[in-house]
Design brief:
The protein is about 0% helix and about 55% strand. The protein has about 110 residues and is mainly β. Strand 7 (about 65-70) and strand 8 form a beta hairpin.
Length: about 110
């Protein structure tokens, strides 16, 4: 399975971005977004089950929303009220596979 993440970029604090992850085929498992900030360990940001149940790391609760479209083999991460500390490379993960990452930079 190939996972292609997109949607990263440069945004000012308080702004929004929507990350997308396209899978090359159906993934009948949980999907997740991880992130890795410069000099820090990789962090699990959000997960979504096949049925749509979601979980978030405390630091993004109320600001980020993970969703999926199983018919289109897509997973999304809507990021609102972005903060400089959200700056990181974001990775889409599912079925044991990792995407290549997309860089999100939040300026203060």
């Amino acid at each position: 399975v190939q996972l292609q993440a997109s949607g990263g970029g440069l945004v000012q604090a308080g702004g929004s971005l929507r990350l997308s992850c396209a899978a090359s085929r159906s993934i009948f498992s949980n999907m997740a977004w991880y992130r890795q900030a410069p000099g820090k360990q990789r962090e699990l940001v959000a997960t979504i089950s096949l049925g749509g149940s979601t979980n978030y790391v405390d630091s993004v609760k109320g600001r980020f929303t993970i969703s999926r479209d199983n018919a289109k083999n897509m997973v999304y991460l809507q990021m609102d009220s972005l903060k400089p500390e959200d700056t990181a490379v974001y990775y889409c993960v599912g079925g044991g596979f990792w995407g290549q990452g997309t860089l999100v930079t939040v300026s203060s």
